[in-house]
Amino acid sequence: MRCFCFWIPRHLCRPGLALKIGQINTGVSLDSRQAIAGKEYRNRWNHPDNTNFWDFCASARLTHAIILTIIFLSMCLDSTLQASPRFDEIRQQGLEAFQEKRYGEARDYFARAYELQPYNDDIRFRLALSLIYQDPGRPRQSNHEFGKKGSYREDLTWAIQLLKESVAVQERIEVRSPQTGLRHFHLGVAFWYSGRSDLALDSFRRSFRSDFTRTDALYNRIVILKQMGKEREASVAAREYLRITSIEDLDD
């Protein structure tokens, strides 16, 4: 569009055409007419009124970009809407297996649901729990379509990664909350099952700090400290546990 609009005034102001018009309307010499024609052309092209033309071009480009963006977003939305019934079906199957404590099957369903919606923190959290609490001796390859191979240790590593991401999501909402404390608690269990007792102790400590009702996190700290042979620290943790639980009994 810009080149077309530029060609029209330039064509009208060619020296030959300006000369022909000058011969009809003026008695000015050729050199003078050429100079005047060039000056008129420059003045006409640089006239302030022509800023509307450039504004129009800029507006047209912006409108074109907006239209393309809207088309792209609508295509993405259509694909999401088309996939959502399948996602809801898989999620429901995962929830049913999870509630019946068939964590191995739930793991496979939630893994597929997480592929469809990796931003869904609820799916991320349930997938992590299914990875942790499944039967370690269960065959990795399931009979249904979403079954995947892999060792229990690999699943624990994945669960730890998922729970760390879930903790970060919850802490952006509220650092101290039951949901944050719950995620720290299960992260501690995952570390414990992985043989990383020091990280498990830290996660259980963070769990209680995030939610003071999680006395089970304090109890787990006592068990781990005793397993590590730290009797003195275990005794301190036990006294703290008894003090807090006795206060809860008084409140009841």
Q: Which strand-content bin applies to the residues? A: under 5%
Give the % helix: over 70%
| Radius of gyration based on Cα positions | 36 Å
Distance N to C terminus:
80 Å
Described by its quaternary structure, the protein is: single chain
Number of helical segments? 11
Shape: globular
Order of helices and strands: HHHHHHHHHHH
Low-confidence stretches: 1-30, 79-83
Structural class assignment: mainly alpha
Quote the average pLDDT.
77
Question: Main beta sheet, described?
Answer: none
How many extended strands? 0
Outline the secondary-structure elements.
Blueprint: H1 2-12, H2 15-25, H3 30-45, H4 51-99, H5 103-116, H6 121-133, H7 152-173, H8 178-193, H9 197-210, H10 215-227, H11 231-251
Task: Describe the fold and architecture.
This protein is mainly α. It is built from eleven helices and no strands. Helix 4 packs antiparallel against helix 5 (103-116) and helix 10 runs antiparallel to helix 11.
Based on the model shown, name its key terms.
252 residues; mainly alpha
Question: What is the compact description of this entry?
Answer:
It is built from 11 helices and no strands. The protein is mainly α and 252 residues long. The chain is globular and about 75 Å long.
